Amino acid sequence: xxxxxxxxxxxxxxxxxxxxxxxxxxxxxxxxxxxxxxxxxxxxxxxxxxxxxxxxxxxxxxxxxxxxxxxxxxxxxxxxxxxxxxxxxxxxxxxxxxxxxxxxxxxxxxxxxxxxxxxxxxxxxxxxxxxxxxxxxxxxxxxxxxxxxxxxxxxxxxxxxxxxxxxxxxxxxxxxxxxxxxxxxxxxxxxxxxxxxxxxxxxxxxxxxxxxxxxxxxxxxxxxxxxxxxxxxxxxxxxxxxxxxxxxxxxxxxxxxxxxxxxxxxxxxxxxxxxxxxxxxxxxxxxxxxxxxxxxxxxxxxxxxxxxxxxxxxxxxxxxxxxxxxxxxxxxxxxxxxxxxxxxxxxxxxxxxxxxxxxxxxxxxxxxxxxxxxxxxxxxxxxxxxxxxxxxxxxxxxxxxxxxxxxxxxxxxxxxxxxxxxxxxxxxxxxxxxxxxxxxxxxxxxxxxxxxxxxxxxxxxxxxxxxxxxxxxxxxxxxxxxxxxxxxxxxxxxxxxxxxxxxxxxxxxxxxxxxxxxxxxxxxxxxxxxxxxxxxxxxxxxxxxxxxxxxxxxxxxxxxxxxxxxxxxxxxxxxxxxxxxxxxxxxxxxxxxxxxxxxxxxxxxxxxxxxxxxxxxxxxxxxxxxxxxxxxxxxxxxxxxxxxxxxxx
Length: 649
Ligand code: WT7
Fold this sequence. Notes:
Elements: H1 20-25, H2 31-43, H3 45-56, E1 65-68, E2 75-78, E3 81-82, H4 84-88, E4 101-106, E5 112-116, H5 117-133, E6 141-145, H6 150-162, E7 165-168, H7 175-185, E8 189-193, E9 195-198, E10 201-204, H8 206-213, E11 221-225, E12 239-241, H9 242-247, E13 258-259, E14 263-269, E15 277-282, H10 283-298, E16 305-308, H11 315-327, E17 331-335, H12 346-354, E18 358-361, H13 363-372, H14 375-378, E19 387-390, H15 397-407, E20 414-416, E21 451-454, E22 467-471, E23 481-482, H16 486-494, E24 501-509, E25 515-520, E26 524-527, E27 530-533, H17 534-542, E28 547-557, E29 561-570, H18 577-590, E30 599-602, H19 616-623, H20 635-648
Parallel strand pairs: 4-17, 6-7, 6-8, 7-14, 8-11, 11-12, 16-17, 16-18, 18-19, 19-20, 29-30
Antiparallel strand pairs: 1-2, 3-13, 4-5, 9-10, 14-15, 15-23, 21-22, 22-24, 24-25, 26-27, 28-29
Helix pairs in contact: 2-3, 5-6, 7-8, 10-11, 13-15
Residues 269, 315-316, 391-394, 416-421, 442, 503-505, 517, 520, 526, 529-531 line the site of 5'-O-[(S)-butoxy(hydroxy)phosphoryl]adenosine.
């Protein structure tokens, strides 16, 4: 096999065309219509995107130019002014949607709250006024470190209302991770909660913020939502209760007119090297991308009840719980807790309770559902469902078939959506009324998206040859920079294949033009649908006084897709279980629970090539059990194996 091609072992021939009934009512209702749109967008991107932006967004001032400049520094809709919240809220208030449910929220303990578009508008205005009162100005950064409660969506939109830039940090991250992100963004204010519910336990958040602030001096004020009643310390003149502040705030707040390229948010994501990358998205392009893809891919209609199970702390929640659905005037369901609390039937009870019609989740969750058994979904009425989606990692065809059969009752199309934090919105995905799906394939690029499979040297590859997945044309919702580090942005995404966007995935395209994602080609793990940098886990490990060296690799994991295996060399003679536990909790503390190692292996030395590069392929083989090595392996064994491998390479 040539060095450039990536071998693909997956063979899948089943096909599932959309039913006539589904196609008849769909926004994009035939393959011809899709082909036509795609070709038009490829031939005349400015005409295509310009028309969509004029027809689907509300502008305060119209734009002069659709796109300006080549990738990577393309600007979109320059000269235009708009406000995202006017598009997500105000424009639904002068028609019947004012009393439509915008957000249906379900708390983990079973409490609920429904915010109609009018209510959401009022709450957003209130909190926008609070932010102003606390000194937040257009362009300031605000960290949101919150559970999945309505106040999180309200706080995001309140930032957008006044042009403050939100940086949401997933509630599972540790105090150190919060401090690092606060510092990178130079955040002025943090919004948090006393705690969040997770499987009946309280996950303290305010306490973590307190700890993070010792190391992040840019933060001047903290707003705290009372969620669980967990005890917190309030620092005078720094910390304020959300409920006290909003009580007296006006429910009217003019939306600030913002330039199309005004920053909307920063979201930190892992890369293969260095600290987390602050992916920056801007106003008009991101809004247009999420608006159109929500409509095309989820076929959103006014009578849908749409539920995306992601956490808003990740890009999926930003784009497809909040911005995309609300811009379409949809009803979006938001659930606070775990899928197996109080029992493994919780998700299906929620589907039944609200009559959810569109359900979007991750393959890692689907594998857990399979493991819990068909009885749980079997006990609920799932007949309201009409469309299913997945995101986060490749879905194995057997999990796809289970989802199709048990959840979809063999009647719901499945949209396997490929995209990334950096792309802002869905890039490659079936259109449910137009595309015949194949289990395990994210099928074809959406209109306006022009992917290609290339070798490391940028040579285009033909059908069924695995290579690097790149984008040849810019698109409106792409990231604009890495916050505060434009050089790193250019280096990370545009240097590997000159003239193209490349963010780390391998893929092949089959004879029907369908894409099959083969996973990441860099040192980034995909653990339960979330990107984790091996390098960050390694640096967390070596920060421990007893660790001399560390190498982290992924291995196949039944539920999580990839598990985390850490090879560590110690500075002391100790290979006890206690030490393993200590290192495990050390990593959790440094990064967060999502980075909890699955395996810790003590090694007398980490195998390296003569040039000093960690031999990751060998370690991956060992972690996956493909290379048999006992627990008592010594320095010599590894070195010998390493040397052997090196000869082969
Ligand atoms: C990486 C992006 C986009 C929201 C969730 C994760 C993998 C994502 C798919 C899919 C195969 C997928 C890729 C990608 N990925 N969706 N449908 N099929 N792989 O966002 O943390 O930015 O991760 O997730 O490897 O590069 P993210």
